[in-house]
Write a structure and sequence with these properties.
Length: 322
Amino acid sequence: MTEAPDTDWRLFRGDGSTRVVEFPEAPPWRRFTPAGKGAPRPSPYLIGPVEADVVTAALRVRRPLLVTGHPGTGKSSLARAIARELSLGRVLKWPVNSRSTLKEGLYHYDAINRLRETNLRRDQDGRGEAADPGIGSYVRLGPLGTALVPGGQPRVLLVDELDKGDVDLPNDLLTVFEDGEFEIPELARLPEEQSQVEVLTADPDGARVPVVRGRLRCREFPVVVITSNGERDFPPAFLRRCVRLDLPDPDEQRLRSIIAAHLGEEALAGVDDLVEAFLGRRAPGELATDQLLNAVFLRIGGVNLDAEGLLEAVLHRLGGTV
């Protein structure tokens, strides 16, 4: 008689039965506990000394760091690692897409809501007049604009996947990167008595900063990390103003170090076959490191990765059609 396969690890069985299950703890990189007491400690970001020196060079010359590499090599995570290691606070993130413009990164003026609220207050007043709610409440700095707010320590700005943006966007960024300042025309046109206006920032805490005569100029150029998947080339003038870093695919030793950093040294026991399978399947750009971490996490959690099709689902190649 053949013994039935162990199904204890299955949360979902697909048999139509209803039950209450206790969810196991999520992987460290998929926990969303608010920062503060009781929050999981961030895992270290592992990078080679050569790559660390390139990052340091960009920080010293106050130039944007253009990071290229295959998906899953840690391009976006590098910005968070810099902010955490240098105690530079929350990372400002600007995810770029085909519709992104320079103005979107700098600021947004919500003229429609300002007009609507003015009319609403006028109606509630009942006399056909009401106080102007103030333009500052309707101007919100974007991630790039917030990064340029003058302060003590520089902010970290992640410009994610710039190569997905419009072909003109890199050139549009040049002036801002060179001058470290920009103008908000809607504020620059205000009369002298309104020369200083407090506007909202891209930070989630509702913070406001003063803008004088419609201009913002940084005191320290922000730490700008620009990621690219290498989908297209950038103009030479843009490249000249960046320090370039190409993140290589991690080798076997680095993979094992990453597993230990995220899941502990004990996680390395009994995962040689997973590392071997990962390296055997990996072609340039075809697998991401976090896929291996997922497989190891499932293995140490008692999941039967030998179940038909499961390992293939976890270590699926990123290229080609689905």
